[in-house]
Amino acid sequence: MIRDIVKDEEFLKIPSVNASIKDKHVAVDLLDTLEHNSENCVGLAANMIGHSLNIIAVNIHQTLVIMYNPMIVEKHDPYETEEGCLSLEGVRKTTRYKSIVVEYEDHKFKKKSKKLSGFSAQIVQHEVDHLHGIII
Q: Which residues are designated catalytic?
């Protein structure tokens, strides 16, 4: 189901908790909402649709991916950039890393590890920050 985007910065600053298999309906809503906003959005975190759970949906090379309980375990080559967010007005400066390794659980809650670089890495970093209550 397509959900409204949360714009309450105080709510978005609350760190999320780990998700479990019973939270799969939130992932479905995340994907629906991401697809609905695909013209100006490449990733969403569950708290952006009102759920303080560690779930993100990201568009990586034109493929929508759900990550449960993602953790960035490696990051290399910092750089400064500007980002926008559906939950916020305008763009803001932030530091990102050119390459990362993210560990997460897939839709079957099987542990995965993925090395990402460039824009894909930036998307995942932005959404994982949301899960920690960090907004740009």
A: 127
